[in-house]
Structure prediction request, 267 residues.
Amino acid sequence: MESAPHTSLRCPAMAAPAPATTRPAPATAAPPPKAHTHTGPRQRRLLPALHRPPPPPDHRGTSLYDLPAELRVEIYKLALGSVQIHILPPNSSERNNPHGLVLTSRQVRNEVLPLIHNSCAIRIDITDFNFDGLLAFMARMPPDQEANLRKNTKLEIRLCTTTTPNVKKGEPCNSMQNSASLRKWLHVRADKYRPQPNWVYSGPVPDYKTAYEMRRRAKRMRIAGERMELVRMLKAIGVEVPGVPDVPESNDNMGTRSPQATSGANQ
Prediction:
């Protein structure tokens, strides 16, 4: 017996599912290429140089301070060639006017003072042996300038004496009233450890009473340096002190000028 042909029955419900449609993946951007990293020293790109205008010219002129010190000293010497310094007593009514170079600046002052002390003519008038003005001048001077003053050969002390009329017997003369000031000056001049300038005494011959009192004072002095200084001072104004050795002519501490030479110079 022949078998009947097999026929397959398909049920619509059992049909195979249709294949699913897949969407293409979106295109992604390619990653940027990696920058080349330089491991060596970093090089800087050179730029063309900028054109800069030249600096403006300096119109400032040359001042005194731009000159060498040697030239400045020569200029100071020309300015101080005819300068004469007059030391005033403490109670003088005249006004003390310093030189203009001293008031310029501190640098000029420090450069001019040595020249003033070792080259300019310095004079002082001493009345009745009152040395207060000269002592004040020496006290104000810096210690380093005393050595410069010692080099000066134009230092003069003008001695003058006054007389009081109708002076009673036994009263001291005017010169003896300044004994303390004279004693201080003689003590300064007798100090051998201090630079002693070459002061030159001059002046007219004093009256008889003043000469007698000063001569007696010189004989009674015990300190040799002070006694010799007073004798040198009196000899310059024509007062001889008998019994005291003569002052040697070559003396570095002090010079003397005879009254005859002084009177001739004044004429």
Q: What stands out?
A: The chain has one domain: 65-266. Residues 65-266 form one domain.
